[in-house]
Design brief:
This protein is mainly alpha-helical and 81 residues long. The chain contains three helices and no strands.
Length: 81
Amino acid sequence: MTKKSFPNPHEIEALPGTEGWERMYPYNYFFSTKDKEREAYENNTFWFNDALHYPEPLFPLILSGMRHGFWPFHSLIPEFS
């Protein structure tokens, strides 16, 4: 039986024409090769595809809304202020 797994994200190279895509996303949304301790952690972590909640790739503009879109609501509730 063949072993199925995701490819190692540290070994995947950018497709031609997509160089610099990392600048559009926050640093914590992609895998790091600069920090060897973090790379070792990422290689030894169980990863899964959450296709139920995120069936398609998330675009940078959507991610910025997800990160910053909810904080004003907490200021409207007195016990969380």
